[in-house]
């Protein structure tokens, strides 16, 4: 029996495993890096061991440190979670050699499935359908193809190539990314199927020869070949196809004498054919949807099997309703999925009262690695949380999930929340018309939820009124409206930097603290403070009539043409986050008299986000062409390229490989030809 378990991971997955351990009476051990010292998973464990440093290769990827931590705390078992060393056969073997219980499949099974190339060859022999594969680029004779890393997963090292001219660079880039992420630069080319679906089968196997499939999941909506929406059952899978998929998954598991939780992934073509992609020899990020519809705790089953127990069922349990999960990432979908860093000032999802374990009744489940005040840095994956809805039908689950996301208050970092809501409410999604190219074909889902002109204006007005209320509380004459005058005068104005640029908000309150006039407009930054830039005190004629029902520094209630709207305003150091039924918005108040700042030289190339400079491919004086790759910045497990915006000459180079840079730091100067 397992007495004390170390989770060789961090964040959300560590918290998930700890939750099941608490329910089973198993003591827990956390490990944490410098960057994770204040992470929620550390405080929730019975014991915690510090791993000096922040970079993954100095902390969570150091198997020797993890095993030493287990010994130091008297742990007798190790759960790897997912990511990091979860599919590292050498680590699994080292855990077992140290006399600890490994919660996962055998090192041999991990090694056999860890190489996608070897796995394809092995499973083809037992009848699992395979796509045509080429190991060397010159063997490719049909396009498009997908370049894939043989080791690892998570979409890293993957590139779609549609012609031979682009193949060499795609293979080289995939090799670099795979070597950086997994320590193995082996890649291969696989036939790419247009409009395919990503379908996977969850399996559980024990050491007594039982292998049970727990239904399929659809994970077709992806960005950068990484899943962001997952659901079960798939709207494209009927009972006959489900049986075929499950039998193929069982064959794959039996081929490697699999024990524990695993997932066999397939590509489903529009023709109805399916092909093996890979087998993940670990717990999957999206396991909660299966837990909902099957009614089991998969982590509990993992621990039970690791203790030598037998599965409590012989065949697949029946499916109950429908579950959908979304991954909430700190990233900007509209800006090439750029990761976002900073302090998460507020993280609240109303209605999500359950976390880290199977739901007992239809509802919402939130598995999160963060809380209010968490710092989102550059060292780890940008996933903040997973939100799961379980309902009797797919339509009900999608509606419940989209509504909860839309009402969530997420302040401090940019996220993909609005995109997820628009996907869940899209007619193509609701009709089941999803595939791996969904986001490419539906660019309309990238629009922010707060997209109507009136909604933007009213949110800006609410922030301005909340600011006036805060200032009024500390005024010399309490009770008078902010900026009160005894005769009509110009509007009180405040200028914000918003998601669409610089915005000026004007308002005037009368003697009764009612809104006498208001106006909002976008302005050019250079116009701020110049004569003639003031708003018309009568207000713009196209603004809807609005009246203040109440206004505090945290909450503003307006009557807009007879409709009551509430705006929650959260201000942190001059940055205001406003949430309403219309959507969410972030506004940074600009100083009334801004100080002059040094301008960057013309042609400056700046860091898109904090991180480490990876490759530097140019030197001062080098002539480059528009679109040419100049250097890369590595952050959050991804390589971010910096390309030449135009033809020119590198007149200045400020960084070298390995340099740490902040967002906006000057990297190089390109003088146009």
From TrEMBL:
Signal peptide span: none
User: A Gene Ontology molecular-function term?
Assistant: ligase activity
Keyword list, A-Z? ATP-binding, Biotin, Ligase, Nucleotide-binding
Provide the Lipoyl-binding domain boundaries: 595-671
- Tell me which cofactor or cofactors this protein depends on: biotin
Pinpoint the Biotin carboxylation domain residues: 1-444
Ranges where the ATP-grasp domain occurs: 120-307
Pfam families, alphabetized: Biotin_carb_C (PF02785), Biotin_carb_N (PF00289), Biotin_lipoyl (PF00364), BT_MCC_alpha (PF21139), CPSase_L_D2 (PF02786)
This protein's superkingdom? Bacteria
Write down what this protein is called.
Acetyl/propionyl-CoA carboxylase subuit alpha
Species in which this protein is naturally found: Dactylosporangium sucinum
